[in-house]
Write a structure and sequence with these properties.
- The chain is an alpha+beta fold.
- The chain has a single domain, classed as Immunoglobulin-like, CATH 2.60.40.
- The protein contains three helices and nine strands.
- Strands 1, 2, 5, 6 and 9 form a five-stranded mixed sheet that branches. The chain has a four-stranded antiparallel sheet with strand order 4-3-7-8, with no helix packed on it.
Length: 164
């Protein structure tokens, strides 16, 4: 009986000690990091089920304007159809951990798995010009630790054909 309060106290102190490193200074992600050098287009994903397939692709860097570590930093890229009524969800891609080399990342490429297909003999370039082809926008969201997601940038994906 005498050891139980001491064991409970030790357990509470251990939990507080292990939790302490997660309690660092709060960072305003919107002010601390930026998405830069954004390029994109439609990646030639090859032939799927006998049809040419194109998927949206975006390449970018994330820069930070603080010298402190911003870990963990996660990204969520929301690919959205641009419609006359606004935007419609298309696909989201999650980047669990962003690694900085100094104050910026290496170029990062993110591609959706969902895309558009065209029957032969329609070429990939013809697919991009088809009247029913719908343009996409990618919205970049970031999150540090347990903070809320914040929007960092928006980029309309151009109708460029990418092979790499």
């Amino acid at each position: 009986m005498n050891g139980r309060p001491a064991a409970l106290l030790a357990g509470v102190l251990l939990a507080l000690t292990l939790g302490a490193p997660a309690c660092g200074p709060t960072i305003d992600v919107r002010q601390a990091v930026h998405v830069t050098e954004i390029t994109g287009g439609w990646f030639d994903a090859g032939i799927k089920d006998g049809k040419n397939k194109l998927v949206p692709s975006v390449t970018f860097r994330v820069t930070k304007n603080v010298n402190d570590s911003i870990r963990p930093l996660s990204l969520n890229l929301a690919f959205r159809k641009i419609t006359p009524q606004g935007e419609e969800d298309f696909e989201e891609k999650y980047v669990q951990s962003v690694t900085f080399d100094g104050n910026q990342t290496a170029p990062m490429t993110v591609r959706a798995e969902t895309g558009y297909t065209g029957d032969a003999p329609q070429t990939r370039a013809q697919m991009l010009q088809h009247p029913q082809f719908q343009d996409l926008r990618v919205v970049f969201f970031a999150k540090h630790s347990s903070s809320n997601w914040v929007e960092l940038a928006r980029y309309d994906i151009p109708r460029n054909l990418l092979t790499r």
